[in-house]
Design a protein that fits this description.
The chain is built from 9 helices and 16 strands. It has 303 residues and is of the alpha/beta class. It folds into 2 domains: 3-186 and 250-301, Purple Acid Phosphatase, chain A, domain 2, CATH 3.60.21.10; 189-245, no CATH class. The strands form 5 sheets. Strands 1, 4, 5, 14, 15 and 16 form a 6-stranded mixed beta sheet that branches. Strands 6-7-12-13 form a 4-stranded mixed beta sheet, with no helix packed on it. Strands 2-3 form a two-stranded antiparallel sheet. The radius of gyration is 19 Å and the shape is globular.
């Protein structure tokens, strides 16, 4: 089978349809398929932020259920499950309903305001999405592939149960379950040197930065080479020998999204390829076509 992998969509259905058309997919009987039998793999994050979340979900789920696509869960889908699932033992929900969480989820809430039953159907569908996929040629995960977490999930993950949600949302007591979900869906973070901070894309002050785990070890010389949104204060400083950052250890390619990359899409490391180029911030929706010639990135500016 031949594959096309597509990055984070965040409710940009129109842009997705243009990209699918450019890839040769056509809508027949309401579902996108490819005349040559190609198969799409989505890396998660279908909801929140964008203008057509309902349309995106219908398009993606229809492709998955018809066998024309596969998909993994993104952190936004996991957050939605946790946000809307009541915590029977403690009361409330598995994800807090503070201003921060509501603000992140508000577009989805607004667009499903009059479609309660439909949204519940999608929440149920989210729970069927795998946390990772492994094909003969490549791997797919939303944010970070760590073999230790993958092996744990293979042995211990048995679906989205109340017990699983309780552990996966509890940083203090969740143990291996918490870290497997946290880092697989949100990536690895590393504390910055004492006194160094930055503000993330939502304006939140951060003392930890996401690790560019896909960066090849030989390319890691300075802090800016290995930390996302690296503060200018330390960007050009050499990484001290005692600071170690996780690096993808395998040669089997892994595709992922999540990191809001900017600029023209490029493959920095053929063994670990990010497909998220900030479509929800006016960037591009990116696909990677796998063919006999190798990997080809196709980008569509947001419309």
């Amino acid at each position: 089978m031949k594959y096309d992998l597509i990055g984070d969509i965040h409710g940009h259905a129109d842009t997705l349809e243009i990209l699918l058309s450019r890839l040769g997919y056509r809508r027949r009987f309401g579902v996108y398929s490819h005349p040559e039998g190609r198969h799409v793999v989505f890396v998660g994050d279908f909801i929140d932020r964008g203008p057509k979340i309902r349309e995106t979900l219908h398009l993606v789920r229809d492709m998955v259920e018809s066998g024309n696509a596969s998909a993994v869960m993104g952190n936004h889908e996991f957050n939605a499950i946790s946000f809307h699932t009541p915590h029977i033992e403690k009361g409330g929900f598995f994800r807090q309903h503070t201003i921060k969480e509501i603000k992140q989820h508000i577009e989805t809430l607004d667009q499903f305001a009059h479609y309660d039953h439909e949204f519940q159907d999608f929440l149920d569908w989210f729970q069927t999405l795998p946390l990772f996929l492994e094909f003969e040629q490549f791997r797919v995960i939303h944010a970070c592939w760590d073999n230790e977490h993958i092996n744990f999930l293979k042995q211990d993950y048995d679906g989205i149960t109340p017990g699983f949600l309780s552990l996966a949302n509890d940083k203090i007591n969740g143990g291996a379950t918490y870290w497997a979900v946290e880092e697989s869906l949100k990536g690895k973070e590393h504390r910055l040197p004492e006194g160094v901070i930055f503000h993330d894309k939502d304006g939140n002050e951060r003392t930890e930065a996401r690790v560019k785990w896909w960066a090849a070890p030989e390319a890691r010389k300075k802090y800016k080479d290995v930390l996302m949104e690296c503060p200018k204060k330390i960007a050009e400083d050499d990484i001290p020998p005692n600071r170690q950052y996780y690096s993808y250890p395998d040669t089997k390619p892994v595709f992922f999204g999540h990191y809001w990359l900017k600029g023209d899409p490029k493959i920095e490391n053929p063994s670990a390829i990010c497909l998220d180029y900030s479509v929800a911030k006016g960037g591009q929706l990116v696909a990677c076509r796998i063919s006999e010639k190798g990997f080809e990135l196709i980008a569509q500016h947001v419309v």
